[in-house]
Design a protein that fits this description.
By secondary structure, the protein is mainly β.
């Protein structure tokens, strides 16, 4: 049972072999929109048990945010810690896709420039493109070619496009520089202009000169060229004239005048107007025409105030008329000379655009005759010189008749296109005396015959007149016949003026200038005759042509008291129509009146009740005016007077005398106590008119009528 020593053997088992690891997934490249996917390798070990380990995961940046590589590395270990070799897989991510870009639809677009500019300003986002990208943000940029060369990024809002054809290209760029483009076209095909019109001065008298200025901006755009054209300036509907547009400006300087097509009656050259330039508020319009069609042009307006033009109006009619002593009815003829006032400018108005009115006692008082009478011309070739007349008939009251008549304070004024007034002028309608006038002869026209039918210088005017009161002193009788010559287009015409109704006959003793003086110192007796008359062209006596009836004829005949042969006798003839007919004929027109002309042949006789049998030169003799009572006598001179009256009272009684003076309205204007057989002087401060002087002595009374001119 012995046992040997023991022997033992130890076997040590070791695991020193690394596990086996398979291959990882293949390296690959993908787009940024894909997700990287790695393939993990497998491992095995002879002793059993192995683990695959991810030992690194590395990302390396590329050339842009979406370009990069990602590498994963693995190995395997067994239970004894033996490691296998490593295995790796790399996935490359790339961004190679362009962004998606969208331009606004409806291209091509058409636009006009903004007002007053050669460019169009883009409104907000109207031409902006949009873009997207799957992998990154996108930057938008743009560029314009064609009529405009500009570029930028982001929105195009407020960018300016020139007149013409413009191409806008949009570019979308992602983070990796991939790009895509789109484009639109915008045709800026009209230039919208700004226009203005001014008128200087903005308040202006009719017929004076104004300056119109029209401007247009812009006027010369690149691609469109110069606007060109012209401007027609209008006031209301009235075309004033036109002017060409030069460097964007059209200027016109013209007077405010209308032509005959704007008159109330275009067929009547004497009719007054009521057209666009009648004083008031107006609208001026600048009408552009003939401009380049590339431009849109509006017609601007501006206000203008037209005021009345100044004119001088002067009473030039007779101031003394008589009534029929039976009916106490008489006709007063009023007339004015009217002249467009020369204000120093080169243009003058048309006086036919004025109307006139005569008033009693005050401007805008009671109308005498017809109101708003159209002014006619003195000479058809002169539109600045006018003549206006009217008449009215009235009957004196018995007290006025006994007082000698009625005195009017006549005022006159202009309206319609003109302003101006005149007055007062004293016009007397009086009881007549026993006057008469006869005469016949001729004058030779000088250069001053005037009127629509003026006589021709060097031609004759023949006249014959007989005018007197009938034996009972109740009615005027007689007639006037005037024949004169006028050259028209080389042909001599013969005209005839014949009275048909006698209105008034007044005889006055006058000096050489026509001033009333006492009969014994007068150098002329002057007869003023106003009548109605007919007017004819009698060139062909078998076929006379009527030129009007019921016209106003004034004949003033002067008889010399110093030479009885007729060599110094004078005459003037004036024929006027009503309303705008104006002055038809004046034998000698000067200074707004018809003036006398010495006879070239013939004789005139002028008489009144106080006409002395023969003139007594430079010897003052009182003229007996009226004796009412035989208890005492009254004499007054001169009558009429333009200074003072002298009255003498002769009586057999020694009683005191009371002298009282009344005007035509019965108002006491002067009174004095005195002695009989004395001379009284008074009236130097009296106004023009008729006055009644009452002289009382005891219970006796006498009255006389005196006239102050």
């Amino acid at each position: 049972g012995n046992h040997s020593v023991t022997r033992s053997q130890t076997v040590t088992v070791r695991d020193t072999q690394a596990p086996t690891i398979g291959y990882a997934g293949a390296n690959t490249t993908i787009e940024c929109t894909a997700t990287p996917s790695f393939t993990v390798p497998t491992a095995s070990d002879a002793c059993g048990g192995s683990t695959v380990n991810l030992i690194s995961d590395v990302t390396a940046a590329g050339t842009c945010a979406n370009n990069f590589t990602r590498t994963r590395t693995w190995d395997a270990t067994d239970a004894c810690g033996n490691h296998s070799v490593t295995r790796s897989q790399t996935i490359t991510v790339r961004d190679t896709q362009a962004p998606t870009i969208t331009c606004p639809g409806s291209s091509p677009y058409t636009r006009s420039t903004n007002a007053g500019l050669c460019t169009y300003k883009i409104v907000e986002t109207e031409f902006n493109a949009t873009a997207t990208d799957a992998c990154s943000s996108v930057t938008l940029s743009w560029s314009v070619t064609g009529a405009t060369t500009i570029s930028g990024s982001g929105s195009m809002a407020d960018s300016l496009l020139n007149f013409g054809f413009n191409t806008i290209q949009w570019t979308a760029t992602d983070a990796c520089g991939n790009t895509s483009t789109c484009s639109i076209t915008v045709d800026v095909n009209k230039v919208t202009t700004s226009t203005t019109v001014t008128v200087t001065p903005s308040t202006q008298q009719y017929s004076d000169t104004v300056r119109f200025v029209a401007t247009v901006t812009p006027y010369n755009c690149s691609g469109a060229g110069d606007i060109g054209g012209k401007v027609i300036f209008k006031i209301g509907t009235l075309v004033m004239d036109s002017a060409f547009v030069i460097n964007g400006v059209a200027t016109l300087t013209v007077p405010l005048l209308e032509d005959t097509i704007h008159r109330i009656n275009p067929n009547d050259p004497l009719s007054p107007t009521n057209g666009p330039l009648k004083p008031g508020s107006k609208t001026v319009t600048a009408c552009f025409s003939g401009t380049d069609p590339d431009y849109i042009v509006s017609n601007p307006t501006t206000p203008l105030t037209v005021t009345c033009e100044n004119a001088d109006i002067t009473y030039n009619g007779q101031t003394y008329f008589t009534v029929n002593p039976t009916s106490l009815t008489g006709t007063v003829v009023l007339s004015d000379y009217v002249v467009d006032r020369n204000d120093g400018l080169t243009t003058r108005g048309d006086i036919r655009n004025a109307t006139a009115t005569f008033w009693k006692d005050a401007v805008y008082g009671n109308v005498l005759g017809t109101a708003n009478i159209p002014v006619g011309l003195v000479n058809p070739a002169n539109k600045q010189e006018g003549f206006v007349t009217t008449s009215f008939s009235t009957t004196l009251t018995s007290s006025e008749a006994s007082g000698g008549g009625r005195v009017y304070e006549v005022y006159s004024g202009l309206n319609n296109y003109y302003c101006g007034d005149d007055g007062p002028t004293t016009v007397t309608l009086a009881m007549p005396g026993q006057d008469f006038v006869t005469g016949g002869g001729y004058i030779v026209f000088g250069n001053n015959s005037a009127g629509t039918y003026a006589g021709t210088a060097g031609k004759r005017m023949n006249f014959g007149l007989v005018m007197k009161w009938n034996p009972s002193g109740k009615n005027l009788q007689g007639n006037i016949n005037i024949i004169y010559r006028r050259m028209e287009n080389g042909v001599q015409h013969i005209y005839q003026i014949k009275s048909n109704a006698i209105n008034s006959l007044v005889v006055t003793d006058v000096d050489n200038n026509g001033n009333s003086v006492a009969a014994n110192v007068a150098t002329f007796r002057k007869a003023v005759i106003t009548t109605k008359a007919n007017f004819k062209d009698i060139t062909d006596p078998l076929n006379p042509i009527s030129l009007g009836g019921n016209l106003s004829l004034t004949v003033i005949a002067w008889e010399s008291t110093t030479v009885n042969t007729g060599a110094l006798d004078r005459i003037s003839v004036q024929l006027a129509g009503s309303g705008s007919t104006g002055l038809l004929f004046s034998s000698n027109w000067s200074g707004g009146n018809t003036m006398w002309q010495t006879l070239n042949g013939g004789k005139i006789q002028v008489r009144n009740a106080s006409t002395p049998p023969a003139p007594i030169a430079k010897q003052v003799q009182p003229e007996t005016i009226e004796i009412v009572e035989h208890a005492f006598s009254v004499k007054g001179w001169p009558n009429p007077t333009d200074r003072f009256f002298t009255v003498s009272v002769a009586s057999n009684s020694n009683e005191h005398v009371l002298l009282t003076v009344y005007d035509i309205y019965g108002k006491q204007v002067y009174i004095t106590n005195g002695s009989p057989n004395s001379i009284y002087k008074f009236g130097e401060n009296f106004k023009s008119g008729v006055y009644v002087v009452e002289i009382r002595q005891g219970d006796k009374r006498s009255t006389v009528k005196l006239i102050k001119q």
